[in-house]
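If you are new to this repository, start here. Below is one unmodified record pulled from the training split, so you can see the exact layout before writing a loader.
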Amino acid sequence: MRALVVVNPHATTTSERTRDVLISALRHDLELHVVETTHRAHAVELGRQARTQKLDLVIAVGGDGTVNELINGMLDGEHGSDVPAIGIVPGGSTNVLARNLGIPEDPVEATGLLLDALREGRRQPLGLGRLDQRYFTFAAGVGLDADVVRTVEELRAAGRKSTHALYVRTAVRRLFAQPDRRHSRITITAAGHEGEALPPVAVAVISNCSPWTYLGSRPLRPTPRASFDSGLDLFGLSGLGLIPTVKSVAQMTTRRGPRGRRVVSLHDQHELTLHSEQPMPVQLDGDYIGERTSVTVSSVPNAIGVAY
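And here is the target side for that same chain:
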């Protein structure tokens, strides 16, 4: 079996020695080529090449960003039977996709699970989300959520270490920095429900699974019914007043998720369009992608196979 291993050398939870051990184990079962990423979107290029070269498998050794880039490269705007399967050895700080799939966070255990899957021929189809022409695996965010991601990326580029505490502090600061926090400017249109008047929101999280993310070991569930096996779920808040926002975040730590008159929830949606008169920040799988005035988000069932 011909495989490509894509290693993010800056992954926060795997050392160079650990990666060498993992690659040595994989070489026993695979015809292997190993590449380290050197720049942003490098994994997109590598994923695209893997599909062109008709490889059987691409293995991501890194975090959610590495997995997202590889999948976008392999699919390259469309899915089909010639797309390689993907394997995941978690190496990021949060590893949301791997944890939702039940892949062990320990890289050695994850490699063992991957090898078992390859020997037994296990490939699980994975549904994805797509925002305009870019795929995401677990979540997209518009508004405050994406603003926090953007700010953390800027802090990391300036030399700050990515920690859960950094995200929490940044989220609090960016909440108070939002313009006109008590009013909403993002309108939502759901395919098949065009006649329904959905409340506008100040922030939107579109989820492909639950939990949406983790704060250390604690899962956060803004959309507790979201699943890889169904369409997309949306969580929104009609305003960003301090008390309602803090209450909703606290409710995310429960299995029921957020509720209340300011909460907007949609379940199992095929397609959503979000629009704002003012440009709004957007993130996919924890990666800031810029500002948009309008985005279309759709569910893509069985988009890619995962070996685990």
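Two things worth knowing about this chain: The longest helix spans residues 107-120. The chain has eight helices and 15 strands.
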